[in-house]
Amino acid sequence: MADDDLSQREKRQQRHQQSSRKDLPKTVAKTYGIWLLVLVVVGAAGYGIYKASTGGQECPGHWHATFEVFVPGPQGQPQKVDMASPRATNGLPYYDLSGGAGMGYEVHMHQSGAEAGAGDVQPVQWHFEKDGVCVGVQSALHSVEIDATATSLKLFGAHAQVGQAQTWTVNATASLHYYVESKVDGNWTWGERPFADLKSYQLKDGESLLVAFGNYTSDQITIMEKQIPAPISRV
What is the average pLDDT value for the chain, to the nearest integer? Predict the structure, then answer.
């Protein structure tokens, strides 16, 4: 059929079909680009959530933080978890970097050697390495064979050497609290933190952590806090 025989309506339909065929590659490319952008954004968000949940931000410096964990002892009195006595098969302190705990590069302890620090600091000081991946409190505690949650505390592994491998769960007469000593207005100050905030929180250089399971008074908590030495970077 010649163009002259086509009605105006038919001509418009013909031009629309020709134009649609020409624009199809552009439409496909645009749609593909939009979906690709969506996938990139979703993937980046998911990766960010994963990194935040595992405390995986880049650690910018060689940081030090001290910690102590207290559990109920005889008559319910606070008893310090012994991090110094367990020994590896090579005779070194078990939780030393060169001991038997298999501590990673990102977080470890020096209970012997040049970086050990003073005697009271050696068994209670974490080292977070420069250019490593920072780790949250939950992962740091796991590195010394302590599984911590908001409602339970489990000591395993070498803690059996000193009779402290056990699980404690919050009940009507015992609770679990986490405290951090951080710098506030130029002063080092203790404050209680919810576990949800600490789970992936990277302890800053010079900070200290107290974990206390049991039924304790504020005076007892203060005594525990005073037993935690300052990290060598703070001194």
Answer: 83
C-alpha angle 193/195/118, rounded to 5°? 70
Every domain of the chain and the residues it spans = 3-53, 63-226
Q: Is the model more confident about 176 or about 4?
A: 176
pLDDT score at 38? 37
The DSSP secondary structure of the chain, one letter per residue, reads --GGGS-HHHHHHHHHHHHHHHHHHHHHHHHHHHHHHHHHHHHHHHHHHHHHHTT-SB--S-EEEEEEEEEE-GGG-EEE--SSS-B-TTSSBTTSTTSSS---SSEE--SSSTT--STTTGGGEEEE-TTSB---HHHHHHHTTEEE-SSEEEE-GGGGGGT---EEE-BTTBEEEEEEEEEETTEEEEEE--HHHHTT--PPTT-EEEEEEE---HHHHHHHHHTSPPPTTT-
Q: Indicate the Cα dihedral angle 130, 180, 160, 145, nearest 10°.
A: -40
Looking at residue 100, its pLDDT comes to 85
Query: 29-33, 59-63, 220-224 — which one is most confidently predicted on average?
Result: 220-224
Residue 210 scores a pLDDT above 90: yes
